[in-house]
Amino acid sequence: MTDESKIILITGSTDGVGRKVAERLAVSGNKILIHGLNHQRGEDVVQFIRNQGGDATFFHADFSSLDGVRQLAAEVRQEHSKLDVLINNAGIGVSGNWPGRTESVDGFELRFAVNYLASFLLTRLLLPALFSAEKARIVNVSSAGQQEIDFENIMLTHHYSGERAYCQSKLALILFTCDLALELGSSNIAVNALHPATYMNTSMVKNDGMPALSSVEEGADAILQLAISPSTEGQTGLYFDRFLPGHPHRQAFDMAARTALRATSFVLTNLQDPMQQQG
Question: Across all residues in the chain, what is the average pLDDT?
């Protein structure tokens, strides 16, 4: 690795837009940390990158389990004292293999657990490694599909739909982005969220029965802009609609909602809130 090379973790990078981002980043001499659930697909991505002259390692983790997320964070930190970029891309769609309400290993609504809570926990556990980088970036892959979070029914035990669960989890990522950016302030870590592209030609979109309206290449371009482009350096706490700052659901600007989500997330992941410790 050269002085300009970066260590980059991309969750959900054995398929779809995550894989495309990994392949694009690998050609720049970076060290790419591939994450996924399927061992064979993970090794296939690693081999592809190495065949192109890149450097990659596969990490297996099941994001429906918080212990799986903890194990991933521990393995990454054991091998790398610093992390330059974290791209929280892993997620499940509206229906796919789980058309009805399903619970995670820990008993949480599955889309909230995989699409949001796993990213919250992983980011929190990897903050020390991100602080060790000269300039670090966190990119949370959200969606234009956003549903207001009902904190009285956050696990959607009633009035459930896959679309509502998916859109709620994606809005939660944006609230988390705004809250974390405020906490980190003028530190070396920038954190942003984005909607990369609409209905990309991915297996998730196909499994949801939706027609592809854009490509993984388009989505990758948008993610890469936030992950490594000089044009977005210093920008933090924003939601991008593809390449430009966008307008998320109004709940993203509701401090009471962000505080409630923060408190709920720390309780569910059994972490201590550093802001409360400071107080």
Answer: 92
237, two tokens: 């706490």
| Dihedral over Cα of 23, 43, 2, 122: its sign | positive
- Its pTM stands at 0.93
**Among 57, 127, 142, residue whose Cα is nearest residue 86:** 127
Taking CA atoms, 201 is separated from 2, 23, 125, 204, 212, in Å, by: 34, 17, 32, 8, 5
What tokens does 230 get? 């000089």
Q: Under 8 Å CB-to-CB from 133, ≥6 apart: which residues?
A: 6, 7, 82, 83, 84, 188
User: What phi-psi label fits residue 206: left (phi over 0), alpha (psi between -120 and 50 degrees) or beta?
Assistant: alpha
Residue with tokens 């609504």: 109
Closest CA to 191 of 220, 251, 146, 232: 232
CATH of domain 7-274: 3.40.50.720
Catalytic residues: 166
Residue range 249-269: average pLDDT? 98
What gap in Å lies between CA 205 and CA 128, rounded to an integer? 34
> Beta 85-88 vs 136-141: how paired, if at all?
parallel
The residues pairing with 116 across neighbouring beta strands, listed in sequence order, are none
What are the tokens at 137?
A: 């970036």
Q: Are the beta carbons of 64 and 121 closer than 8 angstroms? A: no
